[in-house]
Amino acid sequence: MKDLRRYLVLKYIQYLVLSSSNAISTFLGLLGSLYTIIILQSAKVSSKSTAVLISSLAKADILVSVSVVSEMVVWTFDVGISSTAFASALLQNLLAANAHISCLLLSCVAFEAYLITFFPAESRHLRTVKNARLTSGIIWILVTAECALFQTDDLLKASSTSAPTRSPCALLFHFSSVAAALLRSLSYFLGILLRIVNVYIYYKIFFSMSNR
Predict the structure, then answer these.
(1) Which long-range contacts (CB under 8 A, 24 or more apart) does 9-18 make?
(2) In sequence order, which ranges of the chain are alpha helices (DSSP H)?
(3) How many domains does the chain have?
C-alpha cells in the first residue's frame, strides 16, 4: 500500500499540480504505472474499489505509451506521417484523453478517501468494486467520445478549405467546431474545479487526522 500511495502522489503531482507534463514527469509516470500494474496482480493486494480505480488510472498511461512509441518510430525511421494532420492531431488528442481520464480517476480516489475518513460506515454500500468498475467504465466512455469529437473536428478543419460553404460537410464542420470549442472550454474549467476540490478534500483529511 505504501508503493500505491507513492504512485498516487506522483500522479497528483503530474496531473493536478504541474500545469503541463514534461519529459521527466511523463517518464516517471510511465514507470510508476507499469510497476503499479505489476503490484496489483499480486495476491497480497485485496480487490477493493480503490484498487480498481488505481488499476484503471495506471492503464490510462497506455495512451501515453502509444503516443511516445509513435513519436519514436517517426523520429527513428524518418517516417513522414508526423506531417499529416490526422497523425499529429491523434497524438495530441491521446495525450489529452490520458490527462482527462487521470484527473477524473484521481478525483474519484480523493472522494473515496473523503468518504472513508468522514463517513466510513454510511458510505460502505457505495465503495464497492462494482461501483468502482462502473465509474471507471463511464469515465473511459465519456473521454473516448470527447477524443473522437476532437479528432473529427481536427480532420474537418484540415479539409474545410476544399468544401463548399453550404455543403453538408460545411454544416458538419460548423457543428463539430462549436461542440469541440464548448467541450474544450468545459474541460478547462472542469480541470480547475477538480484541482480546487482535490485540495479541499485533502486539506480536510489532513486536519482531521491531525486532530485525532
Answers:
(1) 11/57, 11/102, 11/106, 12/106, 12/198, 14/102, 15/99, 15/102, 15/103, 15/106, 16/103, 16/106, 16/194, 16/195, 16/198
(2) 2-12, 23-40, 49-59, 61-77, 85-118, 129-159, 168-211
(3) 1
Q: How many CB atoms lie within 10 A of CB 43?
A: 6
Could you tell me how far CA 121 lies from the centroid of its own chain?
A: 30
User: What are the DSSP calls for 146-184, one per residue?
Assistant: HHHHHHHHHHHHHHGGGS-TTSHHHHHHHHHHHHHHHHH
Crossing angle of helices 129-159 and 49-59, rounded to 10°: 20
pLDDT tens sequence across 159-181: 665 545 555 666 666 777 888 88
For 60-110, write each residue's pLDDT tens digit.
Answer: 999 998 887 877 776 666 555 545 666 778 888 899 999 999 999 999 999
Distance of CA 25 to the CA centre of its chain: 15
**Crossing angle, helix 168-211 and helix 85-118, to 10 degrees?**
30
In this predicted structure, the answer to whether residue 138 has a pLDDT above a threshold of 80 is yes
d(CA 52, CA 39): 12
Between CA 128 and CA 113 the distance in angstroms is 13
Nearest to 8 by CA among 188, 211, 202: 202
Per the structure, the complete domain to which residue 13 belongs is given by 1-210
Closest CA to 160 of 152, 188, 17: 152
Which single residue is written with the C-alpha cell 470527447? 146
